Amino acid sequence: MNRLDFQHYMFRFALRGAYAAPIGQPNDILDVGCGTGRWALEMANLFPQANVIGADIATPPVDEKPESQHRRTENYVFVEMNVLDGLKFADASFDFTHQRLMMGGIPANRWQGVVNDLARVTRPRGWVELVEAQPMDGAPALDKLKAWQIQLTAKRGIDIMIGSKIGALLQNAGLQNVQFYTLRLPIGAYGGSWASWLSKTTSR
Ligand SMILES: C[S@@+](CC[C@H](N)C(=O)[O-])C[C@H]1O[C@@H](n2cnc3c(N)ncnc32)[C@H](O)[C@@H]1O
User: Fold this and answer.
1) Helix (H, G, I), strand (E, B) or coil at 178
2) Pocket test for ligand 1, best of 3, 57, 100, 202 (most atoms within 8 A of CB)
3) Which conformational region is residue 24 in: left (phi greater than 0), alpha (psi within -120 to 50 degrees), or beta?
4) 29-82 pLDDT tens trace
5) Which of these, 99, 124, 164, 169, could form a disulfide with 115 (CB 3.0-4.6 Å)?
6) What number of CA atoms fall less than 13 Å from residue 64's CA on the CB side?
7) What is the pTM (predicted TM-score) of this model?
8) Residue 101 carries which DSSP code?
9) Pocket residues for ligand 1 (CB within 6 Å)?
10) How confident is the model at residue 198 (pLDDT cuts 50, 70, 90)?
C-alpha cells in the first residue's frame, strides 16, 4: 500500500499532474484497478462536484473498515470488482475513465476486451485515459533483465510490453482523438535524485 502510494506521487510528479486528458469539469469519474485509491481520492478532491468510483479486485484495508470511512471524502466510493468479469456499470456512465498500471493484472489476450469495456462505460465526448509502464532499452545488463521479464511474464500470458500498444487498443475500441505519449523515466542514481527515489518503488 505504501509503495503504491509513493509510486503514485512519483508518477504525478513525472507526468506533471494526475491526468493528461482535457476533461473539463467531469461529473462522474471511474478509476479501474484503483489500488489504494490515492489517485481517485485526489480526483475527488480536485473535482468536489464529481462522483468518483475506485474499482479494484482487492479491497484496500481502509475500505474494509466502515469506521475509517471518515478518512475518505464523501464523493468517493470504493467498489470491489474484477475487470476481467466485465465492468458492472451501465453504458455511458462516466465522463472520465482512468486505468493505470494494470499490465500485470490483465492477460495479453484480454486487453482489447477490457479497453472496449472502458470505452463502453464512458460517455460520448468523455475521455478514457490509460497509463502503463514498460522496460525500455538500456545498457546490456538492463536489456538482459528486460528479456527475462518478457520471457517470464509471457509464461503467465502477460505482455509486459503492452504499454507501447495502448494507443492502438484505444483506437481499436472505436475511440476518437486518441493521443499516445511515451515518457522515458530514468530509474537509478544516474538519473539524479528523482530517478534514485523511483528505483526504491520498483526494486521491491
Ligand atoms: C500496480 S497496481 C496499480 C494501482 C493503481 N492503479 C495505481 O496506479 O496506483 C495494480 C492494481 O490492479 C489491481 N488488479 C489486478 N488485476 C485486477 C483485476 N482483474 N480487476 C481489478 N483490479 C485488478 C490490483 O489489485 C492492484 O491494485
Assistant:
1) coil
2) 57
3) left
4) 999 999 999 999 999 999 999 999 999 999 988 777 666 555 678 999 999 999
5) 169
6) 6
7) 0.93
8) S
9) 4, 8, 33-35, 39, 56-58, 82-84, 100-102, 105
10) confident
